[in-house]
Specification:
Elements (H helix, E strand, L loop, with lengths): L3 E5 L5 H23 L5 H10 L10 E8 L2 E12 L2 E9 L8 H15 L4 E6 L4 H9 L3 E2 L11 E6 L4
Parallel strand pairs: 4-5
Antiparallel strand pairs: 1-2, 2-3, 3-4, 5-7, 6-7
Length: 166
């Protein structure tokens, strides 16, 4: 039986970079197709992938978790420490071919554990309204809608979760 394992990994590892590219491509294409009827133009895709290195997920400011389904790097979740007992969940992604295998739950549980272990009392995140699968994952794991805590061109809804025993 194949199981998910989730461990911290450098944000710039080969697996992390491949997962970031896949995640960014999927969410960018979803937006572009909705807005223009076409996928993300290649040059725009390359600019977007390069613009966010993930360095904010390097310790001590954060961490990146990579999930493997057997030997396949198939998902990621980032935790960025905001201070005052808060952390932001980001880059939650499971490769489309591995969805439905428990990866989302494994990544969410590992991210919450890591945040709690670092003294986080509240985990927050922002997302887009059209990412309904992600929103469903967050609410299944106890996240509730909260007021906006940041701004950005793709921030449309915000969620938070109080972590017990932090």
């Amino acid at each position: 039986m194949t199981v998910w394992t989730v461990r911290p990994e450098p944000f710039d590892s080969a697996a992390a970079a491949a997962l970031w590219r896949a995640y960014y491509t999927e969410v960018s294409d979803r937006w572009y197709v909705r807005e223009t009827g076409e996928p993300t133009p290649p040059a725009e895709l390359e600019r977007g992938v390069a613009a966010e290195s993930g360095a904010e997920l390097a310790p001590p400011d954060g961490l990146l978790l990579v999930g493997r389904y057997g030997d396949v790097a198939g998902g990621s979740a980032g935790v960025r420490f905001l201070g005052d007992g808060r952390a932001e969940l980001t880059r939650v992604y499971v490769a489309s071919a591995l969805r439905g295998t428990g990866g989302g739950g494994a990544l969410m549980a590992a991210a919450e554990r890591a945040a709690r272990d670092a003294g986080t009392r509240e985990l927050v995140l922002d997302t887009r309204l059209d990412l309904v699968e992600a929103r469903a994952l967050y609410t299944r794991h106890g996240f509730r809608e909260i007021p906006a805590y940041n701004t950005g061109p793709y921030c449309e809804i915000w969620y938070g979760k109080q972590l017990l025993n932090a």
